[in-house]
Amino acid sequence: MCHVIVTCRSMLWTLLSIVVAFAELIAFMSADWLIGKAKPSSSDDVENGTGGSQEPYHPTLGIYGRCTRISHMQFSRRDTLCGPYAENFNEIASGFWQATAIFLAMGIMILCTVAFVSVFTMCVQSIMKKSIFNVCGLLQGIAGLFLILGLILYPAGWGCQKAINYCGPYASAYKLGDCSLGWAFYTAIGGTVLTFICAVFSAQAEIATSSDKVQEEIEEGKNLICLL
Questions:
Q1: How many CB atoms within 10 Å of residue 110?
Q2: Which of 97, 107, 111, 163 could form an SS bridge with 146, CB 3.0 to 4.6 Å?
């Protein structure tokens, strides 16, 4: 018989697991890893009287994508165009960024799998006599290691030609040059920290769902068990 067990700690672990997976996925897909040096308004815009008074803009560069401003002379307006600069994996600007993409993708795949499984832990707490919480916690720890490897390798690619075009000639491995770090990089770091917190907290979720109070309510014949 399936017993739906909801505790404060297990629900918090489930929510954190989902948030971490989405945060890492959004950061990975974003182009806001590096904020490039300021670029002035184009001469075409100045001549058309549409850009002379506007401040310079900052293009952004991600692992495989970028955002830059393009000018539409016909309509006299400026738009920001975002999209992948690499049509395939081999066109990613740096070998280090290729390794970063691999490690981050592996970590995110594990996190998304755990986030999906965590929703069902309310009904199923063990498989083959092994706690799902402990298994998921172990997987989250492994995912965290993949994420750390990716984040360590990422700055090593700052010396590639693509990064130099955005950050100036002084950019090199682990040196930003004229660039600054964007929100996506900080989000990835924050998500990595939360990943390890989730891995540790999974043990608390397992303890909460197998506590004496839960067992007492099961023995009383209750199918829906909610404990704070």
A1: 21
A2: 107
The rounded distance, in Å, linking the Cα atoms of 104 and 143 is: 9
Q: What angle do CA 14, 12, 219 make, to 5 degrees?
A: 85
Residue 95, amino acid? G
Q: Are the beta carbons of 68 and 62 closer than 8 angstroms?
A: no
**What's 88's DSSP letter?**
S
Burial of 49 (0-12, 13-18, 19+ CB in 10 A): exposed
Asked if residues 136 and 209 have their Cβ atoms less than 8 Å apart, the reply is: no
State in Å, rounded, how far the first CA of the chain is from the last one: 23
Instruction: Give the number of other Cβ atoms within 10 Å of residue 127's Cβ.
Output: 10
Unique residue bearing structure tokens 């795949």: 109
In sequence order, what DSSP letters do the residues of 187-200 get, joined into one string?
Answer: HHHHHHHHHHHHHH
In tens, the pLDDT along 133-149 reads 889 999 999 999 999 99
Q: What are phi and psi of 145, to 5 degrees?
A: -65, -40
pLDDT of residue 122: 74
The tokens describing 206, both together, are 């397992």
Cβ atoms 225, 160 nearer than 8 A: no
Per-residue confidence band for 227, with pLDDT thresholds at 50, 70 and 90: low
Distance from C-alpha of 201 to C-alpha of 208, rounded to nearest angstrom: 11
Q: Are 56 and 36 in contact (CB under 8 A)?
A: no
